[in-house]
Amino acid sequence: MHDHGSALGTLGLFTVLLGAALPLIDFFIVNVALPTIDHDLAAGPALLELVVAGYGLSYAVLLVLGGRLGDMFGRRRLFLVGMAAFGLTSLACGLAPTAWTLVGARVTQGAAAALMLPQVLATIQAATAGPRRAKALSLYGATAGLSMVAGQILGGVLVSADIAGSGWRAIFLVNVPVALVGLFLAFRSVPETRSERPAPIDVPGTLLLGVALITLLAPLTEGRAAGWPVWTWVSLAAFPVAAYTFLRVERRADRQGRTPLVPPSLFALVSLRRGLALVVPFSIGFGGFMFVIAVALQQGLRMGPVAAGFALVPMAVAFFAASLAGPRLVRRHGSLVVTAGAVVQAVGVVLLALTVWRDWPSVGMLDLLPGVALAGLGQGLQLPVFFRIVLSDIPAERAGVGGGVMVTTQQSALALGVATLGSLFLTLEASAGMRGALTVTLLAQLATVVLTALLSLRLPRPVA
Predict the structure, then answer these.
(1) Does pLDDT of 147 surpass 70?
(2) S-S: 32 plus which of 58, 156, 161, 224, CB 3.0-4.6 Å?
């Protein structure tokens, strides 16, 4: 780094964390608003899935590229560009006259998020050190988890507040003033950092990663609503080919001394490899759970958007408490904290499944509280620690690439969770009814939690 003088102050950290929260809030804020969007724009199930997935897809596909651009042109500059673009595309979403224009605006909003988000981790990695970095990374993990739950709660409040008759549009329009505040703060408080030897853009790698993610996620998201037409199967068959080609191209670039989009040499880091292996099942379960619970509470239990959002408040509170306690616990018990977190989360999910099976459809917020709170507590002990483990051994000059790889993995897995657990739930609902569908989906999520617990036993004990 050629700018050791510019450290990240408290206001700067707050600002970049705000930039990290916005894209995640917006991935989940839509879940609670889907029924009203459907009603207003006559969208239909396939287009509604695209409102969720179009954003997640363009975001996941472009994240690593966003990280690379930040390394090249300066992370503060790209953070500002991304924040401004996020505000503008949110405005476009909020004013969208038809379902298709909303999908288009969501895709561009995802692209803006992909410019902004990787700069957050890269700035933290480049402009902090030692215990301050560990603390900043823990706060990043806490922000990420909290944003996901807060998005859903906020979505419910905004939809039903129906500010000036705006209905669901408020969930997007609210980003505009927030982005303006973020820009103002970033100008004042975020130091400029860039990589001293930035790698040029890896065009074939970027395109192939895009093809691989789209061939996997598009058919899984759209398949059920569209009735599994031929293109979905062709696309799924193309996925392993695209993924394999991507790996070959990246490996060749790595061997020739160029910096590929996702350098296979990064995976030589045990901490990165094992940390990412945990992020995948965790995020699949999390993404799927949040989507399914939004549908079940609103359509199954006939809760309004506010009640459906507030049913998740115990999860947010417990998550936040756990992620604040996390760093101290990690210093004492190392990666055992993750294992303990997965066990607590598993107990929470089991309690939820039992409650649903026993009392449906007379399930109230209080019946859900113990399960939801335990699930949140368990997740809060896991997610911030994953982030620290994955990033612990990445050299500073590859901060942008490493952060990009991690967030892409997380984002793709969240989208995959919505696609797989969401489709499982909606398919079963037609045949087994809401109670059976929700119970089976919760048990499927339980499987991802058990997998996380088992994988966590392979983590290095002390956590850097």
Answers:
(1) yes
(2) 156
